[in-house]
């Protein structure tokens, strides 16, 4: 019976993805292919889409190289292939997360439950937006989870941990946050592998057009204005929320200092979670830190909410009333209150508008604070237990 439900759930997702793709042009996917077309002609960061809204290519040069093979297909077919890959990545995210939170669960049950959960996960607003835009988020997160939580084998050989992190960081810079995480958690070899892979991918793209690569790293990499309005409601990063709370564009120097402090604190918390709770929680805290400190974290970037919800609901190291917290988080990412706030007046929001309009940010920040409180409480309990048992142990000796 469960397998039948799983088949229906997966069929629903495939049908929705198929129809939405066949009858619509995926805007961000069109940008990716545009980048692939202009990788070697010197116009990678100058060309725009021919049709409105005339978007620019904003990713590192390696991203354009990675999408190169898809330009060999007709656009409609390449778009369909990409959306099917995204659906497969959604399944992989569920399976990898379930494997991490329930390591003793048989493989068959993990696969069946991953199928069952596909339809509920598809209804997450970040997933719906990722599918609607043809975004890369699902694929990148699936690769990150595979690299950081599994031992991967290719042709009978173990793939060094950190390789996929380096590749996805060369496609989109935010995953670079995992590099210091690997060093801080004493996964030094994996840290060097990820860093060298990132550099290698960057140099490979640079060999095709050195001037374009130089322009990206010296001019375009930190220009958030190329991506969109920083205080637009969809930007749920610390920088976007700060502007909306202040009702004006806060000087970048101030935001950089605050973001640096959050980055250091978030990485320290991720290391603590890795050491005192689980590797999976450490990865989730690190990923959430990246979302908070990135200059732009659109609503569709918060696909990490899916593995966080599964951790809250099923992990052995989840907090007290974890399933209640998971239900609340799922409800917020299903309802997506950020869109309830009237658009166009982000810098004039007040009261309930600031609460709902920044809800993805508040949930992420609350997750970080909750993890810190949970780890602190458990450390106090461990110390209290040690204090009570020490005299007994000494008397027994």
Structural class: mainly alpha
Instruction: List unreliable stretches of 5+ residues.
Output: none
How many DSSP E strands?
2
Question: What can be said about the biggest beta sheet?
Answer: 2 strands, antiparallel
Percent range of helical residues: 55-70%
> What is the residue-mean pLDDT, rounded to a whole number?
92
Radius of gyration based on Cα positions: 22 Å
Assembly state = single chain
Number of helices: 19
Strand content: under 5%
Describe this structure in words.
A hairpin with a 2-residue loop joins strand 1 (153-154) and strand 2. The protein is built from 19 helices and 2 strands. It folds into 2 domains: 1-150, no CATH class; 228-383, no CATH class. By secondary structure, it is an all-alpha fold. The protein has a two-stranded antiparallel sheet with strand order 1-2.
């Amino acid at each position: 019976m469960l397998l039948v439900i799983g088949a229906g759930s997966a069929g629903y997702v495939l049908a929705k993805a198929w129809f939405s793709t066949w009858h619509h042009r995926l805007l961000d996917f069109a940008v990716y292919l545009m980048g692939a077309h202009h990788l070697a002609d010197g116009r990678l960061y100058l060309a725009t889409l021919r049709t409105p809204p005339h978007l620019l290519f904003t990713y590192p040069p390696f991203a354009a190289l990675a999408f190169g093979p898809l330009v060999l297909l007709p656009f409609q077919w390449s778009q369909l292939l990409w959306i099917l890959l995204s659906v497969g990545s959604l399944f992989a995210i569920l399976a990898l997360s379930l494997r991490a939170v329930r390591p003793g669960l048989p493989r068959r049950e993990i696969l069946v439950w991953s199928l069952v959960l596909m339809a509920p996960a598809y209804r997450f607003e970040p997933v719906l937006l990722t599918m609607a835009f043809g975004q890369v988020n699902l694929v990148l997160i699936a690769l990150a989870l595979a690299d950081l939580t599994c031992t991967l084998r290719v042709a009978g050989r173990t793939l060094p941990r950190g390789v996929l992190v380096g590749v996805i960081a060369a496609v989109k810079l935010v995953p670079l946050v995992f590099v210091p995480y690997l060093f801080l958690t004493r996964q030094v070899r994996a840290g060097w592998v990820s860093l060298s892979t990132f550099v290698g991918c960057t140099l490979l793209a640079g060999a095709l057009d050195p001037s374009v690569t130089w322009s990206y790293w010296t001019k375009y990499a930190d220009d958030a204005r190329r991506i969109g309005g920083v205080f637009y409601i969809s930007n749920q990063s610390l920088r976007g929320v700060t502007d909306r709370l202040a009702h004006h564009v806060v000087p970048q120097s101030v935001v950089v200092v605050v973001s640096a402090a959050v980055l250091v604190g978030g990485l320290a918390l991720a290391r603590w979670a890795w050491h005192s709770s689980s590797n999976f929680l450490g990865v989730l805290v690190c990923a959430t830190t990246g979302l908070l400190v990135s200059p732009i974290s659109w609503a569709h970037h918060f696909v990490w909410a899916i593995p966080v919800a599964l951790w809250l609901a099923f992990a052995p190291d989840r907090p007290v009333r974890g399933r209640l917290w998971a239900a609340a988080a799922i409800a917020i990412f299903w309802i997506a209150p950020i869109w309830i706030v009237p658009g166009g007046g982000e810098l004039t929001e007040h009261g309930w508008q600031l609460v709902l309009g920044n809800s993805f940010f508040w949930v992420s920040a609350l997750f970080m604070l909750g993890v810190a409180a949970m780890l602190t409480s458990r450390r106090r309990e461990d110390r209290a237990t040690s204090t009570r048992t020490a005299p007994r142990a000494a008397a027994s000796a």
